[in-house]
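Pasting as-is:
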Amino acid sequence: MNLDLEIDGLAEFEQQMTALGPEFARTVAVRAVYEMGEVIQVSAQRRAPVLAKAAANRQPGELRDDIGFLMDAVDATLPMRTGGTVSPLYDGDAEGPGVYGKFVEYGSVHNPQPEPFLRPAVEEDGEHALDAAVVSIGSSLKQMKSLEGMEVVQG
């Protein structure tokens, strides 16, 4: 599941950040996306169903415990364009949570009753994730200003 956000003024913000230096812009973007991913990861883990007892090739809590966040590669030509994925992580196990997690989320022939945990995490905590990104960006800008000896004005 992809979440696409449209934020008014983002193009101008991206230009301003890139003007401060592509490496700085990249660092700010990566930190902000990481903070967003952390919020959604924790939310998804809270919502993930947990088996009451072990079953064939399944352990209680393994789906919840395998939910992680992977940062996408950052394109050097577009320093502010990055993203990430929150999902059960695939570790090469064809029967592991990284494979069966989507069947829990959406249901299947063998599991006709879906138990969504990723979509509700995004729907219910997406705004908190965006808030975390804003705080991260603000913190990075304050840190840069203090390094340059500029005065930081609280709004």
